[in-house]
Amino acid sequence: MALPILLDCDPGHDDAIAIVLALASPELDVKAITSSAGNQTPEKNLTQCSAYADLA
Predict the structure, then answer these.
(1) What is the Cβ-side half-sphere exposure of residue 42, based on CA atoms within 13 angstroms?
(2) Rounded to an integer, what distance in angstroms lies between the CA atom of residue 21 and that of residue 46?
(3) Which candidate, 27, 25, 30, places its Cα nearest to that of 1?
(4) pTM reported for the whole predicted model
(5) Dihedral angle, C-alpha 10, 1, 24, 19, nearest 10 °
(6) What confidence tens digit (pLDDT) does each residue in 1-56 have?
(7) What is the reported pLDDT for 40?
(8) What pLDDT, on a 0 to 100 scale, did the predictor assign at position 22?
């Protein structure tokens, strides 16, 4: 049974790797991805998070 998780990220390029790896892992069940404050606006963070999720 996969471990259910929630990812919280900023999401920079380092978090992009974490998002793609988590979504591709059969051992993890990503229930949600939240975007916390980083160096970008919330809108830019959402756009980046969505793009990373689409890669997986």
Answers:
(1) 2
(2) 18
(3) 27
(4) 0.78
(5) 0
(6) 999 999 998 877 888 888 899 999 999 999 999 887 778 888 888 888 888 888 87
(7) 82
(8) 94
Burial class (CB in 10 A: 0-12, 13-18, 19+), 10: middle
CB 51: neighbour CB atoms within 10 A? 12
Instruction: Report residue 41 as tokens.
Output: 């606006």
**Buried/exposed 12-28: b ≥16 CB within 10 Å, e otherwise:** eeebbeebeebbeeeee
C-alpha atoms less than 13 angstroms from C-alpha of 49 in its C-beta half-sphere:
19
All residues at 6 or more sequence positions from 9 whose CB lies less than 8 Å from its CB, including other chains:
15, 18, 19, 33, 34, 35, 36, 49
Question: What backbone torsions phi and psi does residue 54 show, to the nearest 5 degrees?
Answer: -65, -25
